[in-house]
Amino acid sequence: MLNAGVLGAGHLGKIHLRLLNQSEKYNLVGFYDADDENGKKVAAEFGYTYFNSIEALINAVDMVDIVTPTLSHYDCARQAIAKGKHIFIEKPITNTVEEAETLRALVAEYGVKGQVGHVERFNPAFIAVKEQLDSPMFIESHRLAEFNPRGTDVPVVLDLMIHDIDIILSVVKSKVKSISASGVSVISDAPDIANARIEFVNGCVANLTASRISLKNMRKTRFFQKDAYISVDFLEKKCEVVKMKDAPQNPGDFDMILQNAEGIKKQIYFDNPEISDNNAILDELETFAEAINSNTKPIVTLHDGTEALRVATMIINQF
After folding, report:
1. Strand-pair category, 2-7 with 256-259
2. What separation, in Å, do the N-terminal and C-terminal C-alpha atoms of the chain show?
3. Are residues 78 and 205 in the same domain?
């Protein structure tokens, strides 16, 4: 078992503490929180060991789980890497692309592993269809959330849209060609609703919308590719796959057949992939342990996190 420690005991930090504590792949050593009063409260309520300094916690563990505000990600990670510790770091990886690039260099220099907490990669609905995603040419995503004061210190792009940016970059194996975007601040100082159009070198176009002032929650992405339409509902953990194939010579009475202007006939059929229930946060933490123990590449690398932040920053710079 890997000795693990958590930096940050806020809303998400407490979830990480609970999951690391129940995981069979980690031994939860303890945690640190910059708010001493909150740290002692969490320790008293849940029984976790509270360290009174970052340095003391880092020295006591093999892996540091960084669940602090984004502005402190870089400094926390840098200290952990310099001590030869593996790092799991919540999204966005850092506050700036330059900081992310530095962390990537440091991880390579010190020979440790790093993973970024892009949890939607572990969403069971996405896992169920990702092997069927083959060169989509148009992607549309909507990530809408009801207003919550937590997270409004950053633009909605870094708060919400970055999830979909990472998913799209993991699927589209092509470089970004151009980006156009717009954002509007309604309640916060930073934009609360944003739309971005990303064009890739291979011709794929992705249209992303994110809002944190919606009347309802929605997290859906639709992929359009040759002979297939694939929809992923990240919120409801459902997926839909509609495919087309050449129509049979003698279609059955209930076969759905389309014929285009050239007379070519296609049959529409539905595929319902099996979705296995899981705890996505626990899975991302445990697959990181597996990557450390087997010396293999983490599922969401620091490179992945850096590229998602790079695209997010390009979008924000359009506002």
Report:
1. unpaired
2. 46
3. no
- Whether residues 18 and 90 share a domain: the answer is yes
pLDDT mean for each 10 residues of the chain (319 residues): 97 98 98 97 97 97 97 97 98 97 98 98 98 97 89 83 98 97 91 97 98 95 95 97 83 76 82 93 98 98 98 96
Max Cα–Cα distance, the chain, nearest Å? 75
Concatenating the DSSP letter of every residue in 49-82 gives: PBPSSHHHHHHT-SEEEE-S-GGGHHHHHHHHHH
* The one-letter amino acid at 249: Q
Last residue of a domain, one of 112, 144, 168: 112
For 285, counting Cβ atoms within 10 Å of its Cβ (0-12 exposed, 13-18 middle, 19+ buried), the class is buried
**Domain extent at residue 19:** 2-112
Eight-class DSSP state of 34? S
Spatial separation of the C-alpha atoms in residues 252 and 255, rounded to whole Å: 5
Contacts of 279 (CB under 8 A, 6+ apart): 19
Q: What is the CATH number of the domain that holds 259?
A: 3.30.360.10
